[in-house]
């Protein structure tokens, strides 16, 4: 029995998949199978039960797994002690990284390390792939590595988030796109492009992101692939090309002839990882806990880890001093090494049908923004049970919430974005397949505004009491519908006012000649559009009930139970969209461009933080407020045809584990 056999066995036991273990260890599946069979033959007992489409540990396998961990930890401890004895305050540290990381970002730390520890030599080795870097670390050919790829599934390594990476489009300052503040890859397919070869750290992220978005290399009219940064700069400065790279590779573009432009498909930062062997895990825990300087007796690698951690912790402490209205700091997901490899299995097809309301501005961070930025595709799970899945992502836009509620109840939609009144309607129990759960809020307005009643400028109707015997045209089942019901109940007019369903959006209605006695109710932004065109005046643009307004994410219960990871990934996309909205200077102008609604009107609907003097604004919020929902139920359930609200069990309907899991993963 060899140590390496046990390491292979533990990886298979961890993944419960020969295929995934092979990917993680950079071996072929037959090699993995041969190692396990050899070990089983030596022990004269099976270690795994081979089921139809999966494997599981036998009882003997479970015993061996527990004992193997101890053996490997003991081996690491012995190696570490020998290194400590041999090196002491001298010795050599071997560091591995992509050449671009080594040439720029890493050079600062190497200089700082050599100045502090002149007796320790540093050897830098560059790699052309993350796989070869990880293999060298596992084989102890190098002591520490740096990569944009996470190796969490490699049981022999520890990855530590040590910095962040931004991805940009780079052009020469004289290029016709140089003055753009924001660009999309899909709009630039006919331009001349230059990207790095596999020697570039950004190449795998680029290829992975294109795969997620369904863009092929062949879709680009002209795509040059170069092996060096120098050659890339030549194409950019002399050939009028567009380049893709990270700020690790082209960090000194400021003040040079190059301009960096943010990319719509790369809206968030990514992580840079420091990779170290597993046997330094104990030292790492002590280092984080003590926050003291490394002792003179520590090894060269421990000194190096300590230096980088101190710099990292200083940067994080400075960030924490800056108050952020959105405490989560999501990053782009790191591509798996096997992400682009085709599975030999027949792909399972999973349809994801999301009902959105892209014109309802308060919900843009749940529908329009993640759709435009491609964040839903990015965060979808693609490992383990989803390794060979083929997704059919359908974002279906609606002008109001009622058809989304019906779609959820009829098993025609899986996820819906709804305002407060239709959100409560979705909680109705309509058969087992039509049951829903509330997993998250999207936006809130603590003052409860966002819906309004408007009349033509020359209307004789001046007060709500004048509504007696009149018709109000409104989108049935919308949050505006709920507001009108509460307002009529407040003035005891429920039996005296007729409600008529609006069959077209207010954007069309306001341009149609109407009788001066017409009355409309709608939600944002449609009543704002009517008012700003100076054709309508407000009859009610406030909150008589004292209830806050909110919108949320409702999921079919059956879908959430079958694919919980997909629900979590969608919420991750919303977290990323909200962070982008709150931290991107050009966000407002882009939302205006995508919705064809002026920034002036948007500024009357959206905000980033709650401000009493601007209480009509919606702000992003993910946490579900059960007390707010209960307040809505209390006021509505006494209105005819709303008795069903009494049967809603909020404790069962509200399930916040999904958003908590998404926030933790981000």
Automatic annotation (TrEMBL):
CDD domains: PBP2_LTTR_substrate
Domain HTH lysR-type: 1-58
UniProt KW Magnesium keyword: no
PROSITE patterns: HTH_LYSR
Pfam families with a match to the protein in the record: HTH_1 (PF00126), LysR_substrate (PF03466), OpuAC (PF04069)
Keywords noted in UniProt: DNA-binding, Transcription, Transcription regulation
Entry GO CC: ATP-binding cassette (ABC) transporter complex
GO molecular function per UniProt: DNA-binding transcription factor activity; transcription cis-regulatory region binding; transmembrane transporter activity
InterPro entries to which the protein is assigned, alphabetical: ABC_Gly_betaine_transp_sub-bd, LysR_HTH_N, LysR_subst-bd, WH-like_DNA-bd_sf, WH_DNA-bd_sf
Family classification: Belongs to the LysR transcriptional regulatory family.
UniProt name for this protein: Transcriptional regulator
